[in-house]
Design goal:
Layout (H helix, E strand, L loop, with lengths): L18 H12 L3 E2 L2 E5 H8 L8 H5 L7 H7 L3 H15 L12 H15 L1 H5 L10 H8 L15 E2 L5 E3 L2 E4 L16 E4 L1 H7 L20 E7 L2 E2 L2 H5 L9 E6 L2 H9 L2 H5 L3 H12 L3 H14 L7 H20 L13 H14 L2
Antiparallel strand pairs: 1-2, 3-4, 5-6, 7-8, 7-9
Helix pairs in contact: 2-6, 13-16
């Protein structure tokens, strides 16, 4: 629903290291470990074999695309999704895993064993663990770098990354694999396949193989392709009738109106409309707050303002200027639409922005 700023992955810390540098360093260290199922070979040996890497060429340069993409590569193709799907096209026939919900499939045991081995070789479980040391690269550090405070799938819940005063890990977002790791184990440690998310969305999406037809947060958001609308029986509410008390509030429902297949698939897989319609208190609270910010109420405020300056008449241009100046403050205080920097998110932000546009355009 909202876009992730992946440029943060290229931001440098005080040691001039990026998230990609740290991810690569961590991977090259853990890939030297012996495989649990075969102590005679290392994880690196196994990956060279399974990914069909060229032993005569530099391992690091060959493995990088499985961990992250360079900015030049992304600009060349125009997006991140294409680079992930290029890897899928390369390996899907030979290394594809199985969805957990699938019934018995031919060679199921062999496929699951191969998937387990690939996941261990890439080391996602090590990356996903909780670590106390400040210099340890893991999912906590990644979430802190990406600075995602609200779930990008639903924009409903805060997903803070928190440590205590001793730097112990307390909580962080769950990491969803946009392309499920059980199906695409060779993407299990690619930074561009990690979506920090809330438990509800991660659980809803789970290992469903729907990623190719969903909105991909590193490339896009819903924007105007999927907007919230307040409706009764499938029709946009009439704001004037709502103000006059002619509408049954119990019948008002939220809908995500879409003209985009990927938005439609995302809202279906993540059950967005069903979940958002549980936010009835938030919806009705916003509608009632809007009454206090509508044009009729502005005129009432203007009359009070005129009285406060000894009944001196305020012309229309002065009144418009007055409300333009205080508009953002009114939104913040009355509508609960926080005045935040561009790109900064808070729960239900898109819902409130979309509903305000609907109400502004429908008010007579």
């Amino acid at each position: 629903m909202i876009k992730i700023d992946y440029s943060l992955l290229d931001g440098k810390d005080t040691h001039q290291l990026t998230a990609k540098d740290k991810h690569l360093s961590w991977f090259l260290e853990q890939v030297q470990k012996k495989c649990k199922w075969n102590r005679k070979i290392t994880r690196k040996d196994y990956l060279i074999q399974m990914l069909k890497l060229d032993k005569t060429k530099d391992f690091v340069e060959q493995i990088k695309p499985y961990l992250f993409f360079d900015e030049k590569e992304i600009k060349k193709v125009g997006n991140c999704r294409t680079l992930l799907e290029n890897l899928i096209a390369k390996h899907d026939a030979e290394l594809r895993g199985i969805k957990r919900a699938n019934k018995h499939v031919p060679k199921e045991g062999m496929i699951k064993k191969r998937t387990t081995h690939l996941l261990e070789a890439f080391g996602y479980e090590d990356f996903d663990g909780k670590h106390v040391k400040d210099n340890k690269w893991d999912a906590y550090k990644l979430c802190e770098i990406l600075k995602i405070d609200v779930c990008p799938y639903c924009n409903r819940l805060y997903i803070f990354t928190v440590r205590n005063e001793k730097n112990h890990c307390l909580t962080r977002p769950e990491i969803d694999h946009f392309y499920p790791k059980d199906i695409y184990p060779y993407l299990s440690c690619n930074l561009y396949n990690f979506i920090p998310s809330c438990h509800t969305c991660n659980n809803s999406k789970s290992d469903k193989d729907e990623a190719k037809s969903m909105v991909y947060p590193y490339d896009e958001d819903f924007g105007d392709n999927g907007v919230f609308r307040a409706k009764i029986n499938g029709t946009n509410i009439d704001v004037n009738e709502f103000f006059e008390g002619k509408l049954d509030e119990n019948k008002i429902k939220l809908a995500i109106v879409s003209n985009n297949d990927k938005v439609d698939k995302s809202k279906k897989v993540l059950h967005l409309e069903e979940i958002y319609n549980m936010h009835r208190l938030d919806l009705l609270d916003f509608l009632n707050r809007y009454k206090n910010y509508s044009d009729p109420e502005r005129k009432f405020f203007a009359k009070l303002f005129e009285s406060a300056i000894n009944a001196k008449k305020i012309d229309e241009s002065q009144m418009n200027y007055f409300f333009d100046v205080i508009s953002k403050q009114l939104e913040k205080q009355i509508l609960g639409m926080h005045d935040v920097p561009d790109g900064k998110q808070y729960p239900l932000k898109k819902m409130k922005e979309d509903l305000k546009k609907q109400l502004d355009g429908n008010l007579k």
